């Protein structure tokens, strides 16, 4: 069994941390044994459409609209038009689609991949995360979740990658943009107090994972089982 924690170039993502929090045994299957499993056609189709939407959104913000015409899916093109109305290309704004931040300091090893980062006038930063699934998210679902905490933490710590001449960050927020629920986009504000809380929270999770013993770990029923792709593997009748 390969222990990825001992690899010098390994960085945790919000997905890997959330997996451990939901079920350490699933973390072991996925990140130590490299198992990925899904026999649900609906789930696979949802991932495919999500990936395609991210691709055409990236092309739009990269100024590659001529390549968007290759997409023949009218629903995806409609979703893109809605996105363009909400976040059009504006003079004086800067756009960073599919932007990646790597961080390895003070025992915190993180990798974040952002759907879109906007730089607005007066150095206001806005993270826009695309959610393409049908389930309507509410603020209570995302305000304190790992993705929100990690994405805001990483950008706060590394704002100089985008704001090269800024002495410190002033305004930063994160928006969950829901393609299937356009009237329900969620904005999360951020400040220094939240940042310090998040830093402690993230570091605590990592310390827990780093010291956790996966040797001889037995599977056990948890609430996550009902939505886990490994459920039929772990609990064959």
From TrEMBL:
Pfam families: PDDEXK_1 (PF12705)
Boundaries of every PD-(D/E)XK endonuclease-like domain copy: 13-72, 96-234
Protein name: PD-(D/E)XK endonuclease-like domain-containing protein
Organism this protein belongs to: Propionigenium maris DSM 9537
Lineage of origin: Bacteria, Fusobacteriati, Fusobacteriota, Fusobacteriia, Fusobacteriales
């Amino acid at each position: 069994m390969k222990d990825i924690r001992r690899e010098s170039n390994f960085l945790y993502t919000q997905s890997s941390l959330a997996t451990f929090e939901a079920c350490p045994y699933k973390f072991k299957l996925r990140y130590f044994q490299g198992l990925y499993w899904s026999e649900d056609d609906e789930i696979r189709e949802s991932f495919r459409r999500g990936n395609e939407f991210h691709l055409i959104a990236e092309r739009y913000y990269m100024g590659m609209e001529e390549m968007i015409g290759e997409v023949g899916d009218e629903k995806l093109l409609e979703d893109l038009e809605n996105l363009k109305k909400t976040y059009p290309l504006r003079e004086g704004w800067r756009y960073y689609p599919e932007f990646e931040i790597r961080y390895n300091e003070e025992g915190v090893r993180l990798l974040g991949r952002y759907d879109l980062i906007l730089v607005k006038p007066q150095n206001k930063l806005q993270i826009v995360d695309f959610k393409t699934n049908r389930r309507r998210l509410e603020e209570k679902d995302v305000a304190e979740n790992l993705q929100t905490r990690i994405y805001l933490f990483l950008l706060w710590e590394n704002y100089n990658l985008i704001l090269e001449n800024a002495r410190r960050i002033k305004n930063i927020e994160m928006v969950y943009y829901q393609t299937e629920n356009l009237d329900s986009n969620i904005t999360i504000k951020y400040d220094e107090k939240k940042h310090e809380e998040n830093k402690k929270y993230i570091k605590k999770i990592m310390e827990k994972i780093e010291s956790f013993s996966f040797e001889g770990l037995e599977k056990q029923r948890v609430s996550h089982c009902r939505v886990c792709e490994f459920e039929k593997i772990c609990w064959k009748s």
